[in-house]
Amino acid sequence: MSGAHVWGVLWLTILGLGLRRGEALSLRWEDIDLDNAVIKVGPSLQRLRGELDQETGRRRGRLAVVRAKTEGSDAKLAIPRAVVMLLRQHKVDQAAERLAAKVWADPGLVFTTSVGTPIEPRNANRAWNALCDEVGITRPDGKRVRIHDLRHTAATWLHGEGVDMKTIQGTLRHSRLATTSEIYTHLTEEVQRRAADSMDGALSRFGRIAQ
Q1: How many Å is the Cα radius of gyration of the chain?
Q2: Where do the DSSP E strands lie in the chain?
Q3: Bridge pairing between strands 32-33 and 62-66
Q4: What are the pLDDT tens digits along the chain (211 aa)?
Q5: What is the pTM of this model?
Q6: HSE of 113 in the Cβ direction (CA atoms, 13 Å)?
Q7: Strand, helix or coil at 144?
Q8: What sign does the dihedral 72-75-81-87 (CA atoms) show?
């Protein structure tokens, strides 16, 4: 199973379920019921800052699975059929890789390195940034597209399909409906600005033709 395959499954799982990066990286197969297309989301894999090493002057951090701060962050979500198919194949591929590996640290994790250890969140960021640089994707303001923007995209797609804001709030597990509304409003304004810029270009070309 190639690294590119693992990243692709991770990105599409985050997008399809509106997950946070840490939530996806902490997923375990026991949290996923593929037969009934249901997933239990809650903990988050994070790198915690350690104590300062007096000799080196550096802090030794550690990876840890952190429980959600709010009750709404723990939830059972329905899995889109496309993501179910993706995860089924990923499970088969991972099992084959695990059998071929000399060492495999944790057979329960959904997303791992080539030796079964948790994926470092910073490495996920690096892989995502490399993909965006390769295909030339940026945000309208010129800044980098973040992994977290996949979550925002999920909200926008759901709204575009006619899903009500309260349901989207439950899917993204926001504690406040206002948070969900603010994200969608911000993204809508960006889309409207791009549309206005496109119209401005069209009008300019029309003006030159009309002269």
Answers
A1: 20
A2: 32-33, 38-41, 44-48, 62-66, 75-78
A3: unpaired
A4: 556 689 999 999 998 888 999 999 999 999 999 999 999 988 888 888 766 666 665 667 788 888 765 555 568 888 999 999 999 999 999 999 999 999 999 999 999 999 999 999 999 999 999 998 988 888 777 788 899 888 878 877 777 777 777 777 777 776 666 666 665 555 555 544 554 555 555 555 544 544 4
A5: 0.76
A6: 11
A7: coil
A8: positive
